[in-house]
Prior knowledge:
Elements: H1 2-38, H2 47-69, H3 84-113, H4 133-154, H5 160-204
Helix pairs in contact: 1-2, 2-4, 3-4
Amino acid sequence: xxxxxxxxxxxxxxxKFVGNITLIAILLTITFGIISRYIFxxxxxxxxxxxxxxxxxxxxxxxxxxxVAKKHIVADFLIQRAPxxxxxxxxxxxxxxxISVFLMICLSSYRMFTSTSVYRSASLGLPRQIYYxxxxxxxxxxxxxxxxxxxxxxxxxxxxxxxxxxKEEELSxxxxxIEAREAxxxxxxxxxxxxxxxxxxxxxx
Length: 205
């Protein structure tokens, strides 16, 4: 279990790094396109296609990261008021549905990128199959991450990701408390100085 959790944890960190690089590449590509079009009046033909390809990859990478971090937007205000058994049942069903959907996407995309298609993109000449590789790989990773999440519920205490998030939250709370204490000390010091100045003025008057 610990090995599986370490795999999810470090693969997620790698995905975050790759996602940051991809975002930077998108910004640079769009910037090159704007400069070439509006400054030199000779637009690069490949910028839009490359930015689109990178954006697709970034979307899949972001989906995988959000799945591991459990940061999807959910409307759980009703289920939170339900009995514990019902919450557990809904959680199990949601994970089962998620695994089923991602498996279907994974299998479909695998067939697409292993197919023998002669189609290539207009500007970069990229083969059509390459667009399905991130969809396949990220779907497979999300299936793996959800299965590990289910195992963590059965065998608690090995969720490295959850432990790291809790440590980050505790560190953030400590930093906020320190900042609040420092701000309070500065305010108290300012009020004391103001009172001393007022008292001095009154004595002089």
